[in-house]
Amino acid sequence: MDTKARQRLSTIVESGCERYGQRxxxxxxxxxxxxxIGWLECRSVPTAENLRLIASEAGYTLDEFMDYLGSAQKSIxxxxxDAFLKQMRxxxxxxxxxxxxxxxxxxxxx
Length: 110
Fold this sequence. Notes:
Blueprint: H1 3-29, H2 33-40, H3 48-58, H4 62-69, H5 78-89, H6 93-109
């Protein structure tokens, strides 16, 4: 999780702490108060399960929350990927060139 995502997470955790207090929020999530302090100070990152709990408590689905944090790993499932590859094999040369350029741009941006 990058710095900006940790800062966004800290803001959400801070809202929970304002609502319940640090100890109460920690208890609600089933974690230690030190864990909550680590998230507030951007020193640590919650586990996937704790991210789900934080998201739920804040009124988000996990996907919405990860999108908000800006660290969602976009992926398609294997069957969709296989279907995509089949379609790609039917593309003409110009379409493949455009697709290759998009792939290069995505790799360069990451």
